[in-house]
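Notes, p. 3: input format for complexes.
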Amino acid sequence: MKNFNFFIPTKIIFGKGRINELNENLPEKFNNIMIVTGKNSAKKSGALDKIKFLLKDKNLILFDKTEENPSFDILEKGRELAKKEKVEIIIGLGGGSPMDAAKGIALLTNNEGSMRDYMKGKTPSKDILPIVCIPTTSGTGSEVTPYAVFTDPENEDKGGYANTGLFPIFSIIDPELTYSMPETLIINTGIDALTHALEGYFSTKANILNDYLAIHSIEIITGNIKDAAKKDKSAMDRLSYASMVAGIVISNAGTLFLHAAGYPLTVYHKIPHGLANAILLPAFINFLKQKSNIKEKIEIIESIFEQVGGIESFLNELGIKTKLSAYNINKEELRIFVKKTIHKKNLLITPAKITEQDIYDFYESIL
Ligand code: NAP
Ligand code: FE
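Output follows (367 residues plus NAP):
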């Protein structure tokens, strides 16, 4: 059997209503607490008010400027406020975007230089502030990962950054906080989680324990996403759980070529992250079928999809079109997408040798 490491230092607090346990889990020594959230949803759903009430005895610093697919600029604004207010701990409340922004601000508060420097290989010289995550979508798994994903508008690029210091000290996964999601958000984020579990399962860093969790997560998502999209609460609870499990899977095995190839769709066409992965998913499985040596694993995945009518019909029933032209993407852009994808580290743990031409052919096959 292959040797492996399995590392998740984040305390997981899972269950409906458990947001109420926020205060008792926060180390008492911290008083200046920054809450990083998005512009609207946490206010509209009441999640922010709830947290303000729970932490009424603390000095709360609110940063509610996070955009979708957070950029370096937002992190600079957050850092400025965090330094000024002498923030000691940062809570990310929202989808992957606010949770990742919280992670970026936690890194930058005590460390000089921009996030771009760190993504290019600079090592933080001082400690990253402690992070707490409270997801309100069921997709990214950021609440249990050492990753944060940022957009670089100047270079029209998007990519992930990894540092074990980005693991939250604890995360509260309270499915009730996801109940305000509209149907398309449930679907897009659910497919993001599904692709995390799939990519972690196919990764060259896969291991026996992680594979077990990946299959567990894939079965729950494929079996529940349709009901969840109809706002069936038990199905939504299961997606909250399964997306967290898929986060554990990528913490140990990473995401692959599929995620890297999806980023240009978001950068150039504003296609939501999960949907970008969904559009490319059938082509990615075909790609691995032709190029990789993991035939048995692919058969196992196909047999799971067969239980829900096969992968194409599973996605179509969720309203997802798997042709790039359906999203106004044309042939002329593909060379740019290739250039953005070829250098991503995700390719190094994909179980296939991938050339620029392979990436071009991959996109072109679903034009
Ligand atoms: P998101 O970008 O955080 O949010 C998308 C939209 O959903 C926003 O308009 C947000 O509104 C809204 N929203 C969030 N929660 C809601 C709720 N409960 N009810 C109604 N609306 C809600 O979406 P996401 O898919 O969760 O995160 C995507 C980001 O995470 C991408 O940048 C992706 O690359 C990254 N990601 C990170 C990891 C990781 O390990 N760190 C893994 C995969 C993906 P507000 O802005 O008003 O809140
Ligand atoms: Fe993702």
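The chain has 15 helices and eight strands.
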